Amino acid sequence: MKKIAGIFLFVIFIVLASACSDDTSSSDKDSNKEWKPEKPIEIVAPAGAGGGWDTTARMAAKVFNEAGLIEEDIGVVNKAGGGGAVGWAYIAGQKESAYNLFVSSPPIILVPLNGQSEYGHEDFTPLANMIADYGAFAVREDAKWDNLNDLFEDMKKDPESITVVGTSSPGSMDHIQFVKIAKAAGVDVKKIKYVTDPDGVGLTQLLNGSVEVFSTGVSETVEQVKAGKIKVLGITAEERLEGETLSDFPTAKEQGIDTTFVNWRGFFGPAEMDSAAVKYYEEKFKELSDSKEFADVRKKYGWNEMYMNSSDYKQFLDEQKEDIKSLLDELGLGK
């Protein structure tokens, strides 16, 4: 009987060991599994057509498909509202999906910090950052200022006598990029008169004299500069950009104002995206970043290459949040 019992226990041990081995193999297999899309992919631009988010999403989708980097169709959908909040809320409802992506930039940090969205970058899965864009500060061609120092000297004397317009809300990107440069130049940033133009007619307001300064993206100024209607007093890049007209725009730094503002722009997925899908996308975005086709896109729009993979992007975003929070708190705009 003892011998039979011993054999029975030995058999049970072998079965259990085999089961554990199978579980381990299955786990190893899952951790190393590969993923690729099997149906169309949606990229959300959380704003209207024609802006930076929309252009970045559409150019990425175009090159992905035309260069054969991703075979499945990629559609771009605009979900405007709330400075990005409407689009973010939509993606938050697509939890775990590997087929719903969105493009974003500093507003995904700025807007939640000033209390206008319940969702921030921590509520999504960073996939890859792609580009660095920059701010530009424009005035009418016949304005009395020819450089940023001339403008800021007048703003130091009477900040409220000069109105700055931007598309984004107070505490968001167009506002903060101007405030950061003005602060470094010695302007009392709490007294800056900033107005919002969510309907995209800030340029019209500048041209008709309703405002004195237009804070916007570099690429949004090029055609009007060529037409002789406006002049760019300075941009927020580290050094001058390459390209026709763009190379004529002086940086704030070369005017002795020792700071910059980078409008980084990258892609995210919903929360809890499968790690295999994250790996797939960060590799595909790296291929996109390295492609000649996307290099041509960057050159056309005055963007610089700024690729970061998922983990580096998350660390960068966390650091950006700390820097921006201190500036918003100084302005009294933090929630």
Defining key terms:
335 residues; alpha/beta; ten-stranded mixed sheet; 11 helices; 42% helix; globular
Question: Could you characterize what this model shows?
Answer:
By secondary structure, the protein is α/β, with parallel strands linked by helices. Helices cover 42% and strands 19% of the residues. The protein is built from eleven helices and ten strands. Strands 1, 2, 3, 4, 5, 6, 7, 8, 9 and 10 form a ten-stranded mixed sheet that branches. Strand 5, helix 6 and strand 6 form a beta-alpha-beta unit. The longest helix has 30 residues. The protein starts with a helix and ends with a helix. 41% of the residues are buried. The N terminus is likely disordered.
* Overall outline: globular
The radius of gyration is 25 Å
What does the main sheet amount to?
10 strands, mixed
Element order, helices and strands? HEHEHEHEHEHEHEHEEHHEH
Strand content: 15-25%
State the helix count: 11
Question: What's the total count of β strands?
Answer: 10
Distance between the termini: 76 Å
Mean pLDDT: 90
pLDDT < 50 runs, ≥5 residues: 1-31
Briefly note the structural class of the backbone.
alpha/beta
Assign a percent range to the helix content: 40-55%
What topology does this entry show?
Layout: H1 2-31, E1 41-45, H2 52-66, E2 74-78, H3 85-92, E3 100-104, H4 107-113, E4 125-140, H5 148-157, E5 163-166, H6 173-184, E6 193-196, H7 202-207, E7 213-217, H8 222-226, E8 230-235, E9 262-269, H9 275-290, H10 292-301, E10 304-308, H11 310-331
Parallel strand pairs: 1-2, 1-3, 5-6, 5-7
Antiparallel strand pairs: 3-9, 4-7, 4-8, 4-9, 4-10
